Amino acid sequence: MKKVTLFALLLVAALLAACAAPAAPADSSAEQEPTAESATTEESAEESANAASAEEVVAADGSISCGDEEVTITYIGDPAGSHPAAEAATIERFKEVCPNITVERIEGDANVQNLLAVYLTAFEAQSSDFDVIRVDVIWPGLLAEHLLDLSGYVSQAQIDSYIPSLVQNDTVDGQLVAVPLRIGFGMLYYRTDLLEKYGFDAPPATWEDLASMAQTIQDGERAEGNEEFWGYVWQGSAYEGLTTNALEWQVSNGGGSIVSPEGEIEVNNAETLAAFERAAGWVGTISPPGVVSYQEEDARGIWHAGNAAFMRNWPYAYSSSTESEAVNGNFDVAPVPAGDSGQGAATLGGWHIGVSRYSAHPAAAAAFAAYMTSAENEKHYSIDTTSPPGILDLYSDPDIQASMPFADPAIVEVTTPRPSTATAAKYNEVSTLYFTAVHSILTGEEDAQTALELLELDLITLLDQ
What we know:
The chain is α/β, with parallel strands linked by helices. The protein is about 45% helix and about 15% strand.
């Protein structure tokens, strides 16, 4: 029954996302008065969670307390084509530690807006259909009221092992609502063999360099008969991935960060206008016309086929690139190019692990979340996925360094966060307005100046509510 109900939730959320705007629905649960039944359900879930948290599931020495009861918990994992093998290995290792806890893994939606819609739909119903979830780095503030405070379960020693800024990100109103599994940041993948072939000594340092190099390589490869070759692929679909790309264009050009930490709206300015017009000029020239519908896996598919000189993507694509016959041994990564500001910008991403407040087995779910984000598992997981870990000491581990030459703890200090803290629970709506406006510029549906003026007015209306 649990699986049937969860499938229904996934189906309903997917249909809603397909029929409505690409954004997930805003969380309106706070505006509705709870019924007596829902209040009782929430109180019961909270009482259960509080009772279970009386004893930490992770001891100071790192050992996991599994309890004695045979239970099954459900985990909403990575989407197909991402890291299913690494997650399956994690579950197997956890089973050796806690043989009484069975973890059922369900693939999450690859579109983060749809995934968020699934979560919000289930949380609105206070459903116990899933126990452990992946939490995007931008979601703690939005989902906090529905997530368990893990500080009552995870030892302080383990919490202290995480990168401090990530713990701060996951702490909402004094409650640790998620724990970091992996971080991410935008990177530029490039073909070393093609740069050498066409006489380039280094990857592009600026967006102008990238456009010029991409055009040269694209023209050369097509002249040799590969009509499917493109200079640059990235994520241009109207979803959160476009926000991460556009923010890099904007910040690197000195245009601000959508909404500043002080709450100032920063979109309607000459620097942002120039950045977006430049990106629109890539569509159909050095980038496929269809790039305006690309998400991460779409870009990765073209790259892996050997049909792109450059790709903007996350660290996860590094390991899979080594499995591609077309690019293995012929690629490297570099920082995202700089704009007119003289500096590049890499949007901070990553996935954290949270436990539903409505879980019927909070202690078991917390034990799995704690194990997933332990040093033991994060080392395996990071190497398997080439995803930088959330634990600081692992960056000095020789095996981590060998598998991820790009992994540097200092990168956390120079990445660009999305304005999820400044906009709190309204971030999803802010991002939706932003990527919708940018998408209209990329497709030519709206001229850039008009789109930014309208975006500014929409953000003022939203944030002044």
